[in-house]
Design brief:
single chain, 87 residues, alpha+beta, 2 domains, two-stranded antiparallel ribbon, 4 strands, MoeA_linker/N, molybdenum cofactor biosynthesis, MoeA-like, ATP binding, MoeA_linker/N_sf
Length: 87
């Protein structure tokens, strides 16, 4: 199956579950790999907020938002945030 679920391909294999069979002459590209395990649909899929407990503060009020904080907000499924400029 080759449909997408968010950014992760269904039945994608972790690199730990593969073995390199053939590489390019310079060793920089994998030409063929052997898949060592059977993947299951939905395996290793992390849904928004799975790493955070309900009620846990992800980004405290007054925190300057940078790429890490925006990533945390995206991880918990927050599409918008109320912000203001510092005086």
């Amino acid at each position: 199956m080759s449909s997408f679920f968010g950014p992760v391909l269904f039945l994608a294999h972790q690199v730990e579950d593969t073995e390199l069979v053939e590489a390019s002459a310079d060793g920089k590209r994998e030409i063929r790999v052997r898949i060592l395990t059977k993947a299951h649909q939905g395996q290793d899929i992390r849904h928004p907020g799975m790493d955070i407990k309900p009620g846990e503060v992800v980004v405290a009020a007054g925190t300057r938002l940078g790429e890490c904080e925006l990533g945390l907000l995206a991880m918990v499924g927050t599409a918008t945030a109320s912000v203001y400029r510092k005086p």
